[in-house]
Amino acid sequence: MVYIPLDSSRESSVALLREGNTFISTRCERYDTDIFRARLMLEKTICLRGEAAARLFYDEERFTREGAAPGLLVKTLFGVGGVQGLDGEAHQVRKRMFLELMSDADIDELTRFAAEHWQQAIGGWQRQKQVTLHPAVQLIHFRAVCRWAGVPIDADEAETRCADQAAMIDGAGGIAIRHWQARRARKRSETWMAELVEQVRSNRIQVDEDRALFRVSWHRDAQGELLTPQVAAVEMLNLLRPTVAIARFVAFAALALHEHPTWYETLRDNDTWLEPFVQEVRRVYGFFPFLAARVRDDFEWNGYHFSKGRRVMLDLYGTNRDPRSWERPEAFRPERFEQESINAYNFLPQGGGDHAVNHRCPGEWFTIALMKEAVRQLTRHMTYSVPPQDLSVDWSRLPIIPESRFIIESVRPVI
Ligand code: HEM
């Protein structure tokens, strides 16, 4: 048996909070390893990094997600009873529901709705002195996804409901105020959504049968039972909240356009480079740094012992910039997506493995499509200037965001 390096016999949670995204990769460098042990959030944890480790992590026979996510995340980001914590058949059935909502027609429709909301927003921005892009795009995406999902939303309600989705995302890695704001936002959102699910089921509101609100409300689990209104609400929020979260990638896309003006010029009239560009934004600015699972039964891997029940954390941040998979990983180079060998285990901005079998994010196609639309809007449908502001990114913050949230001014629509 090979010894797994031990980070520190005491708690490493304070270091995790202090260092944020770089916590695992810093230690992997320090101990010259892809695996080490640490005590995190009062629990012995094995931390893993790199493509080979990701292949292991996504072996469903070896790991379970049940009870793996830290309680702080479940109470803010995920919610209780959602797909993220399911295994086996229960997971497959629930996951199918999500994947069936992500057809090409759905992707096109959501993108079209987002484009319309961008156009309306740009019309209003030209009358404002400045616009803070991150919250503004959150609202664009929230309006678009509610429309796509069949969620009725009054104009005066949209901003507060959207702010709750944003609080759940921003509070996911926070402590103190950010954490408590996220918990309250989740409570309010679940109550709102559970009420809508009950209204659909009792025919008090009419929603088209192909809309997500209808389909989630009437979804049956592996035992043929309807979801409880609370769990159906959690799954509806698993569609709304992450679509709002895509605005964070849009803020980083705007940052990348600003820092790499040649890419701005290229993308103004070139569709070919849109996808490599947004993929590189997802790689460099992935804001979901780690994933957690638990060992199902004792096993050995490369001589290392994994004991039943042990929590394991996979480093997405470090794997997305592992020099064994990526050439000059610190450089922003969209062209790498044409040249380097990328697979489901070395590129993990939204998890890895197989969408249908594993817990890999079913929203990747929505994400790529809405990011491409955002880049089209920023480069082709408006002009703007970027005033002096603090554009730094604090990598110890969970989740990352440009400090100023990316402020633009002198917005003019391009007709
Ligand atoms: C799962 C990130 C957008 C719905 C995940 C996972 C990550 C992630 C890291 C976990 C993967 C794993 O456990 O192996 C992101 C990021 C997004 C995004 C960074 C962009 C902002 C979306 C969108 C949707 C979505 C747009 C839906 C509209 C989900 C669901 C799961 C998930 C339902 C759970 C899947 C499962 O447990 O099988 N996402 N996601 N996500 N995501 Fe996303």
Structural summary, described in words:
There is one protein chain. By secondary structure, the chain is an alpha+beta fold. The chain folds into 2 domains: 1-79 and 289-348, Uridine Diphospho-n-acetylenolpyruvylglucosamine Reductase, domain 2 (2-Layer Sandwich), CATH 3.30.43; 88-285 and 354-415, Cytochrome p450 (Orthogonal Bundle), CATH 1.10.630. Helices cover 50% and strands 13% of the residues. The chain is built from 16 helices and 11 strands. The protein has helices spanning 13-19, 23-31, 51-57, 71-78, 88-100, 104-125, 133-149, 155-170, 176-201, 212-217, 229-259, 261-268, 274-284, 316-319, 336-339, 364-380; strands at 6-11, 35-40, 43-49, 63-64, 130-132, 290-295, 299-301, 304-306, 311-315, 382-385, 407-413. The strands form 3 sheets. A 6-stranded mixed β-sheet has the order 1-2-3-9-6-4. Strands 5-11-10 form a 3-stranded antiparallel β-sheet. Strand 7 (299-301) and strand 8 (304-306) form a beta hairpin. The longest helix is centred in the middle third of the chain and has 31 residues, at 229-259. It is globular. It starts with 5 loop residues before the first strand and ends with a strand. Protoporphyrin IX containing FE (HEM) binds next to helix 5, helix 11 and helix 16.
Map the helices and strands:
Elements: E1 6-11, H1 13-19, H2 23-31, E2 35-40, E3 43-49, H3 51-57, E4 63-64, H4 71-78, H5 88-100, H6 104-125, E5 130-132, H7 133-149, H8 155-170, H9 176-201, H10 212-217, H11 229-259, H12 261-268, H13 274-284, E6 290-295, E7 299-301, E8 304-306, E9 311-315, H14 316-319, H15 336-339, H16 364-380, E10 382-385, E11 407-413
Parallel strand pairs: 1-2, 3-9
Antiparallel strand pairs: 2-3, 4-6, 5-11, 6-9, 7-8, 10-11
Helix pairs in contact: 4-9, 6-7, 6-16, 7-8, 7-11, 8-9, 8-11, 9-11, 11-12, 11-13, 11-16, 12-16, 13-16
The structure holds protoporphyrin IX containing FE (HEM).
